[in-house]
């Protein structure tokens, strides 16, 4: 359910009904330069994209940067949560 332009009382009442029935609820509005967005997704699954971090062996390189993990932005994995 998506709502916009409703009073706070209506938003709260519809959200409570949606939450009780496991229905996803979204609302938002804009007032000039200010606005808000709210989502009640209840129990849900999503996938997050994680960048792989490559560890560098200290025997290959010397110096202060050898102990830092290097990030390869071309390799990512998808993690379901």
TrEMBL record:
Segments of skewed composition (Basic and acidic residues): 64-73
Disordered: region residues: 58-81
A GO MF label: ubiquitin-like modifier activating enzyme activity
InterPro entries: Ubiquitin-activating_enz
Domain of life (superkingdom): Eukaryota
Descriptive protein name: SAE1 enzyme
Species this protein is from: Chordeiles acutipennis (Lesser nighthawk)
Lineage of the species this protein comes from: Eukaryota, Metazoa, Chordata, Craniata, Vertebrata
Gene: Sae1
């Amino acid at each position: 359910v998506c709502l916009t332009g409703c009073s706070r009382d209506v938003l709260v009442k519809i959200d409570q009904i949606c939450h009780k029935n496991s229905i996803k609820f979204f609302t938002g509005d804009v007032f000039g330069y200010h606005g808000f967005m709210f989502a009640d997704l209840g129990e849900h699954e999503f996938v997050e994209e994680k960048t792989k971090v490559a560890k560098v062996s200290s025997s290959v390189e010397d110096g202060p940067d050898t102990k830092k993990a290097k990030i390869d932005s071309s390799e990512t994995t998808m993690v379901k949560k």
